[in-house]
C-alpha cells in the first residue's frame, strides 16, 4: 500500500492531466452519442463542402505554419541568437506534436529537440529554453489580447451560458491577479522577492530577459506574430462556415474562436479533444446554426487547426529517423488508433455492411463489439504516456487492444478501414518491441490482486443487490437474481442497452454503476501498468565476494561503500569484477564505477551491466563518476551531468601558517585553553563508548532536522563503528563533543572518514579543531592525502545546459540546500583540491525520473 501511494504521489501531475483530458474526451463522446441522429448527417454535409473554400483554408494552413516558425525565429533573435525559418517551422511542428499527447508541457521545452538545435544551429540548450519561454509567453498574451474582448462582448450580449460566464469571470479575476503579479515582478516587489526565495530559476529567467542582449523590439514582433496566428484561427473558423454553406459572420467566428482559446488554455493534454468540438458547436447554435451544421463546422475547423498539424508533425518526425522517433512514433500511432476507435464507435455503421453482418452475427454481438471499440479507444488514449516510459505491460496492452480492435472493427460493422489502421499499429508495436522492457512489478501486483478482486466483486455485489431489490417503478420491471447479476455485469462495463430508467433515482443508480465500474477497471489497469520495482535482498555470500574484489582491485575512496549492507551486486561472467547498485522504481543506480582489474575491463563491464539491466526491466544510471573516468562513459554513449565536487586535502602541504589561517589558529588556541582535547580510539570499540557516540549522533540529527542517509555514505551502525578507528573532541570531564570515524580508503596513501557529527552544545569551532588534529595525526601515520567527500551541487561555475543551470541556482539561492553552501565553506578552510563529480545516464527522459529515484536509494534500509 505504501508503494502504491508513493507511485500515486510521484506521478500525481501526470495522472491528473491525463484524467482531465480523458474527461474532455468523455464529454465529447457523450455529446456526439446524444446527438447521434445529427452525427449521422455530418458526413454527408462535410462531403458537400465547397472545395474552393477548403483549399483556401489549406493554403492558409501553410501561412499558419510559416508564422509559427517566424515566432520562433524572432524569439531567438530576442536573445541575440539566430535560427533558420525552415528549422524553426519544423521545431514548431514537432513540439506541437509531442505536446498533443505527452502530458508535460515544460518537458517538451526542456528535453525534446534541444540537442538537435545545438547540433544543427549551434544554439545552447539554455538559449533554447529562454527562446521557448518567450514563445510561450507571447502565445498566452495574444490569447488574452484577442480572446478576452470577444468573450466580454458575448457576456454583455447575454449569449454566454451561466457556467461559461462564471468561468470567464474566474479567468478575468485570475488575469487581474496575473497583471498585478507581472507589475510586481517588473518592479521587483513582493512577488519577485517571494519567487527569488522559492523559485530562483524563474527570477533567473527574468534577469536574463532584462539583461544580456534582450531585444524588446523582437519580443513585441513575436507578440504581433502570435496575434496574427489568432487572426488566422478566426479566419479558419470563418472559412469553415463558408465552406459548408452556413451564414458566416465575423462576429460568430471571433466569439467561437475565443471560446476555443479559453478551452485550449485549460486543457494540457490532447489539446482540448472533445471539449472544443462540443463547446464550439454549442456556441455556433447560438448564432442560428443547426446542430448538424454546427458540428460539421467544428469538425472542419479542427481539421485546419488540429488534425492537419498533427499529420505534418508526424511527417517531419518520421523524416528525422532518430532514437526519438523510435520512442514516440508507436505511442503516436496508438494515440491515433484510440481516436479512430472512439469516432468509429459513435458514428453509425454503413447500412449495406450491417445488413451483411447480421446474416452471420446476432445484434447482441454487434452491439458488444461497438461498446468494446468505444471502451478500448478511451483506454488506449491513456496508454501513450506509459508507452513513452518504455513499460512492457503498456506495450503488451497496446498490442492486445490493437489486435482486439482489428477483430471488433470487423464484427461491429465490417469496418475494414479501421481494421487496417489497427493492424498497422499492432505491427509497428511488434516491430519496435525492444524499446519496451520495463517489466511489471509482479510481486506488488500479486499483493494487490486481492484488493483488486475485492473492488470488482464489491461493485458487482452492490449492483446485483441493487437491481434485485429495486422497486418496479424505477425500471418498469422486477429483476430476478440471475437478471440482477447480468444487469450488474453489463452496467459494470458501461453497456446500458436494454435498460430504460423511468425515474431520476433509476438514472442515478445506472450512472453510479457505470462510474463505479469504470473506477474499478481503472484501478485494475493501474495495477497492470505499474513498473517493476526491485527489492531483492542482498546475500551474504555475494557481499563476501564483493569485499574480496574490493581488497583485490579497489582504487577509489568510495569502494568501501560498494560492499556496504545496503548494496546489491552484479558480477561479471569471469567473477573478476562487480557493480554495486541499488534499485528504485525502474532504475538500477550504480555507485561510481565498477570494481575490476583496470579501465579496459571497466569499459567492458559497463555495457554488460546495462544489458543485464535491460533484461530485467531496469534503466541504468551511474552516480558520482569522477572527472577522470568521465571520458570512458562518454565514449560508451552516456550523457553526463555535473552534480558536485569532491574535496581532497594534501596532508604533505597542509599547515596553519599565513594570515588566511589566523581564524583556525585562534580556534585551536581557544579550545585548548577551554580544556578541550583531541583523542584517538583504535578498534575494537567498547559498547559504553559507542553509546556515547550514539547520543552525539542522535543529538546532531535532531538539531539539523536530518535523517540517516546511505548509498554513497554510511549511517550510524554500531557493528561497523565497533571495528573502526574513532577520533573525538572531548572536554575535561571526558564528554564527547564531536567525532569522526575512519574508514578504509583504497587510494594509495589516502585516508578517508565517514560520519562527522557533534552535539548541539559543542563549542564554536569544535569541528575545525577536530579536523585539524585529525589531519596532523594522519600525516604522522604516513598518509599523504585525506578525502573530505563530495559537496553536492557545488562547483558548477559555468553551467553548460539548463539542467546544470538549475542545479547551480538551487545551490546558490534555495534555502533547502543552504547546508551544502555551509559544507563547502567548511571544507574550503583546509584548501583542498576539488574534482568534478558526475551523474551518467542514457537519455534525456531519465532526468525526469532520476531525482526521485536517487532520493529513494539514498534512504536507509529498514
Topology:
Elements: H1 2-10, H2 12-34, H3 36-47, H4 51-77, H5 85-101, H6 105-111, H7 114-121, H8 125-156, H9 162-186, H10 190-198, H11 200-210, H12 216-243, H13 250-266, H14 275-285, H15 291-320, H16 323-346, H17 351-358, H18 363-381, H19 384-388, H20 392-413, H21 416-431, H22 442-468, H23 472-475, H24 481-492, H25 504-529, H26 540-553, E1 568-571, E2 578-584, E3 587-591, H27 599-615, E4 619-626, H28 630-635, E5 639-650, H29 662-673, E6 677-681, H30 687-704, H31 718-721, E7 726-730, E8 736-743, E9 750-758, H32 766-780, E10 785-792, H33 802-813, H34 818-828, E11 833-841, H35 846-857
Helix pairs in contact: 2-3, 2-14, 3-15, 4-5, 4-8, 4-12, 4-15, 5-15, 8-12, 8-13, 10-11, 12-13, 12-15, 13-14, 14-15, 16-18, 16-20, 16-21, 18-20, 20-21, 22-24, 22-25, 29-32
Structure write-up:
Mean pLDDT is 78; it is low at 1-18 and 103-110. The chain is 64% helix and 9% strand. The protein is globular. Strand 8 (736-743) and strand 9 form a beta hairpin. The chain is α+β, with helices and mostly antiparallel strands and 862 residues long. An 11-stranded mixed beta sheet has the order 1-2-3-4-11-5-10-9-8-7-6, with helices on both faces.
Form type: globular
Spatial order of the strands in the main sheet? 1-2-3-4-11-5-10-9-8-7-6
Helix content: 55-70%
Structural category is alpha+beta
Q: Could you tell me how far the N terminus lies from the C terminus, measured between alpha carbons in angstroms?
A: 16 Å
- The average pLDDT value, as a whole number, equals 78
The low-confidence parts are 1-18, 103-110
Share of β-strand residues: 5-15%
What's the total number of strands?
Answer: 11
Amino acid at each position: 500500500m505504501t508503494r502504491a501511494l508513493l507511485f500515486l504521489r510521484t506521478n500525481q501531475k501526470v495522472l491528473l492531466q491525463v484524467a482531465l483530458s480523458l474527461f474532455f474526451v468523455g464529454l465529447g463522446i457523450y455529446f456526439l452519442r446524444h446527438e447521434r441522429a445529427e452525427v449521422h448527417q455530418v458526413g454527408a454535409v462535410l462531403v458537400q463542402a465547397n472545395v474552393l473554400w477548403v483549399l483556401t483554408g489549406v493554403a492558409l494552413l501553410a501561412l499558419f505554419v510559416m508564422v509559427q516558425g517566424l515566432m520562433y525565429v524572432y524569439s531567438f533573435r530576442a536573445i541575440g541568437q539566430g535560427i533558420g525559418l525552415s528549422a524553426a517551422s519544423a521545431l514548431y511542428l514537432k513540439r506541437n506534436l509531442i505536446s498533443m499527447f505527452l502530458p508535460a508541457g515544460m518537458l517538451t521545452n526542456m528535453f525534446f529537440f534541444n540537442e538537435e538545435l545545438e547540433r544543427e544551429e549551434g544554439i545552447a540548450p539554455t538559449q533554447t529554453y529562454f527562446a521557448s519561454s518567450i514563445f510561450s509567453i507571447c502565445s498566452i498574451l495574444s490569447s488574452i489580447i484577442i480572446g478576452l474582448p470577444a468573450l466580454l462582448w458575448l457576456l454583455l450580449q447575454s449569449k454566454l451560458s451561466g457556467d461559461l460566464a462564471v468561468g470567464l469571470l474566474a479567468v478575468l479575476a485570475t488575469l487581474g491577479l496575473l497583471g498585478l503579479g507581472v507589475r510586481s515582478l517588473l518592479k521587483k516587489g513582493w512577488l519577485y522577492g517571494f519567487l527569488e526565495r522559492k523559485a530562483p530559476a524563474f527570477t533567473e529567467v527574468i534577469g536574463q530577459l532584462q539583461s544580456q542582449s534582450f531585444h524588446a523590439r523582437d519580443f513585441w514582433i513575436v507578440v504581433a506574430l502570435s496575434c496574427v496566428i489568432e487572426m488566422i484561427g478566426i479566419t479558419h473558423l470563418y472559412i469553415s462556415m463558408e465552406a459548408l454553406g452556413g451564414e458566416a459572420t465575423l462576429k460568430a467566428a471571433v466569439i467561437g474562436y475565443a471560446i476555443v482559446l479559453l478551452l485550449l488554455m485549460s486543457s494540457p493534454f490532447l489539446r482540448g479533444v472533445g471539449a472544443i468540438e462540443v463547446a464550439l458547436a454549442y456556441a455556433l447554435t447560438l448564432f442560428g446554426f443547426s446542430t448538424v451544421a454546427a458540428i460539421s463546422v467544428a469538425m472542419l475547423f479542427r481539421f485546419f487547426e488540429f488534425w492537419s498539424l498533427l499529420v505534418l508533425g508526424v511527417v517531419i518526425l518520421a523524416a528525422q529517423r532518430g532514437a526519438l522517433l523510435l520512442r514516440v512514433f508507436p505511442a503516436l500511432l496508438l494515440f491515433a488508433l484510440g481516436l479512430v476507435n472512439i469516432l468509429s464507435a459513435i458514428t453509425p455503421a454503413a447500412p449495406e455492411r450491417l445488413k451483411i453482418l447480421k446474416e452471420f452475427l446476432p445484434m447482441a454481438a454487434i452491439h458488444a463489439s461497438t461498446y468494446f471499440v468505444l471502451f478500448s479507444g478511451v483506454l488506449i488514449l491513456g496508454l501513450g504516456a506509459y508507452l513513452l516510459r518504455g513499460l512492457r505491460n503498456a506495450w503488451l496492452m497496446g498490442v492486445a487492444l490493437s489486435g482486439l480492435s482489428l477483430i471488433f472493427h470487423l464484427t461491429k460493422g465490417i469496418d475494414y478501414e479501421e481494421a487496417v489502421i489497427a493492424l498497422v499499429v499492432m505491427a509497428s508495436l511488434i516491430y519496435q518491441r525492444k524499446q519496451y522492457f520495463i517489466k511489471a512489478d509482479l510481486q506488488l501486483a500479486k499483493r494487490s490482486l486481492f484488493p483488486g478482486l475485492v473492488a470488482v466483486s464489491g461493485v458487482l455485489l452492490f449492483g446485483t443487490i441493487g437491481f434485485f431489490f429495486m422497486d418496479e417503478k424505477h425500471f418498469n420491471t422486477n429483476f430476478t437474481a440471475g437478471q440482477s447479476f447480468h444487469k450488474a455485469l453489463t452496467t459494470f462495463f458501461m453497456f446500458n442497452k436494454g435498460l430504460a430508467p423511468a425515474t431520476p433515482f433509476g438514472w442515478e443508480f445506472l450512472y453510479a454503476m457505470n462510474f463505479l465500474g469504470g473506477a474499478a477497471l481503472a484501478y485494475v489497469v493501474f495495477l497492470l501498468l505499474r513498473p517493476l520495482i526491485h527489492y531483492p535482498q542482498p546475500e551474504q555470500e555475494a557481499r563476501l565476494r564483493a569485499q574480496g574484489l574490493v581488497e583485490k582491485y579497489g582504487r577509489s575512496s568510495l569502494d568501501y561503500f560498494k560492499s556496504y549492507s545496503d548494496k546489491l551486486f552484479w558480477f561479471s561472467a569471469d567473477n573478476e569484477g562487480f557493480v554495486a547498485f541499488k534499485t528504485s522504481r525502474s532504475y538500477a543506480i550504480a555507485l561510481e564505477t565498477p570494481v575490476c582489474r583496470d579501465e579496459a575491463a571497466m569499459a567492458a563491464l559497463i555495457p554488460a551491466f546495462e544489458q543485464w539491466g535491460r533484461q530485467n526491466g531496469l534503466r541504468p544510471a551511474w552516480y558520482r563518476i569522477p572527472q577522470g573516468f568521465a571520458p570512458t562513459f562518454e565514449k560508451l554513449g552516456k550523457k553526463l551531468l555535473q552534480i558536485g565536487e569532491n574535496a581532497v586535502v594534501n596532508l604533505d602541504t597542509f599547515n596553519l601558517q599565513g594570515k588566511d589561517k589566523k581564524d583556525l589558529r585562534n580556534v585551536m588556541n581557544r579550545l585548548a585553553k577551554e580544556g578541550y582535547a583531541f583523542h584517538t580510539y583504535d578498534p575494537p570499540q567498547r559498547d559504553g563508548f559507542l553509546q556515547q557516540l550514539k547520543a552525539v549522533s542522535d543529538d546532531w540529527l535532531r538539531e539539523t532536522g536530518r535523517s540517516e542517509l546511505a548509498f554513497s555514505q554510511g549511517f550510524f551502525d554500531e557493528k561497523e563503528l565497533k571495528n573502526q578507528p574513532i577520533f573525538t573532541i572531548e572536554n575535561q570531564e571526558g564528554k564527547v563533543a564531536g567525532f569522526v570515524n575512519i574508514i578504509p580508503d583504497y587510494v594509495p596513501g589516502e585516508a578517508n572518514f565517514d560520519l562527522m557529527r557533534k552535539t548541539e552544545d559543542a563549542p564554536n569551532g569544535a569541528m575545525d579543531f577536530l579536523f585539524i588534529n585529525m589531519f596532523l595525526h594522519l600525516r604522522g601515520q604516513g598518509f599523504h592525502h585525506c578525502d573530505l567527500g563530495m559537496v553536492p551541487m557545488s562547483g558548477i561555475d559555468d553551467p553548460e545546459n539548463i539542467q546544470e543551470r538549475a542545479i547551480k541556482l538551487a545551490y546558490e539561492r534555495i534555502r533547502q540546500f543552504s547546508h551544502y553552501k555551509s559544507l563547502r565553506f567548511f571544507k574550503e578552510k583546509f584548501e583542498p583540491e576539488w574534482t568534478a563529480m558526475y551523474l551518467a545516464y542514457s537519455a534525456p527522459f531519465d532526468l525526469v525520473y532520476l531525482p526521485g529515484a536517487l532520493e529513494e536509494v539514498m534512504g536507509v534500509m529498514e
